[in-house]
Design goal:
heterodimer; A: 217 residues; mainly alpha; 8 helices; 0% strand; elongated; B: 183 residues
Chain lengths: 217, 183
């Protein structure tokens, strides 16, 4: 009698079977994400900060190093999050790897500080603001990619919602911090720790706390 | 069709073949039952009704998320991932709804002490000391003093469902801490 209900369910599910729509296919999910980030950040810099991706302001070695580490965190982190949203994928080692790039950025901030000219803001950075200004920028810039990434993860089947939401938001806020390398004139250690790194961690923690609700299926 | 494997059935299903899908779901139902039987038994939930309820829940999840199957990989790890996720969800939901908590069954899982167990000389105070205050109180009143759930509820001012949950969690905690050798 009980097993009959299961058989009935199987029959009903078979009747409902349809070919997978294009936007649910893994290749489409990855393509949508990469198209989004390729379009979003250049558009944002041009639209709000009048910085063209084709003529970016020159970066110091220190900024360039930070830029590279953040870029790797963002691209590697977001890709990994999407890969982990397929049940049965067990990427134990690489699961934490993108966090090592974030840690490397933290080390860069701390260790390279004595070698930078912290007192003199670089020329060409017109947007003056305090520590909270940068945090707000990171939050606002990361919001759209974070929503997009979480929506894509929801289409898939995230089986570790807290970890995935945290990683997604860490990756997206690292992406936002890349823009700050072009926008923010302050390079003091305190400002970078509070205004940039702190904001990224806070955003990640927010993801961890809300992950279960955000990615429930 | 008979010589095809579940992986092939699922691949064909994703292209829209209903016959392959039916074969796959029948196989999947059996696969889920095999795994769920052990999991439910570990939680002290031994009934065929619960087993089928859980199987149906996972079948629905598989149907909803079938597009996440990558055809280059075997199907079993993919299904196991979904089963693990859904089992936690299912258990939490049923605890919240106070449906299927059989604390008597879970008490039996702790079982008698085994010979040579490193904690065999441990007294009851030490064992109960590992629990939270509420779990300890509920366990003492039910298993040592022999009160009924209703009586414990009245005495402690905690709802009946919360008493059941406390006892169940206490049992699970004790089993996890002291009952590893019995698995």
């Amino acid at each position: 009698m009980i097993e009959n209900k299961t058989l009935q369910l199987i029959h009903n599910l078979t009747q409902q079977l349809e070919p997978t729509p294009w936007y649910k296919k893994p290749t489409a999910i990855f393509s949508l994400w990469f198209l989004f980030i390729i379009g979003y950040f250049p558009w944002l810099l041009k639209r709000f900060f009048n910085i063209s991706i084709l003529s970016l302001p020159a970066l110091s070695f220190y900024s360039l190093l930070c830029f590279s580490l953040l870029a790797v965190t963002f691209i590697f982190g977001s890709t990994l999050v999407l890969c982990q949203s397929f049940p049965g994928r067990n990427l134990k080692l690489s699961k934490w790897m993108f966090l090592t790039f974030l840690a490397a950025w933290l080390l860069t901030i701390i260790l390279c500080y004595p070698f930078t000219d912290a007192s003199a803001p670089h020329e060409g950075f017109a947007y003056n603001h305090d520590d909270y200004g940068c945090s707000t920028y990171i939050f606002l810039i990361a919001l759209a990619p974070a929503i997009a990434l979480l929506l894509l993860i929801r289409i898939l089947a995230p089986t570790r919602p807290k970890w995935l939401a945290m990683s997604a938001l860490l990756a997206c806020s690292a992406g936002a911090a890349i823009c700050l390398e072009f926008i923010c004139p302050h390079k003091t250690i305190i400002h970078l720790l509070y205004g940039h790194f702190g904001a990224i961690i806070a955003f990640g923690l927010l993801g961890y706390l809300a992950g279960k609700r955000l990615l429930k299926w | 069709m008979a010589d095809l494997k579940p992986t092939d059935w699922l691949k064909k299903s994703l292209e829209g073949d209903p016959h392959s899908y039916e074969l796959f779901l029948n196989w999947a139902a059996q696969f889920i039952r095999n795994i769920a039987k052990k999991r439910l038994a570990a939680w002290g939930l031994n009934s065929s009704e619960l087993l089928e309820d859980f199987t149906q829940e996972v079948l629905l999840a598989i149907h909803q998320k079938r597009h996440t199957y990558l055809d280059t990989l075997p199907v079993e790890p993919w299904m196991s991932g979904i089963i693990r996720y859904k089992s936690i969800d299912w258990l939490r939901k049923n605890i919240n709804e106070n449906k299927y908590i059989s604390f008597q069954d879970s008490f039996e899982q702790v079982g008698p002490e085994q010979e040579g167990h490193e904690n065999s000389s441990m007294d009851i105070e030490t064992v109960l000391g590992t629990l939270t205050a509420r779990q300890r109180e509920a366990l003492e009143l039910s298993k040592i003093q022999g009160l009924s759930i209703e009586e414990i509820s009245k005495q402690t001012g905690v709802s009946i469902s919360a008493v059941k949950v406390n006892i169940h969690r206490a049992m699970k905690s004790l089993q996890k801490r002291f009952g590893k050798g019995q698995e």
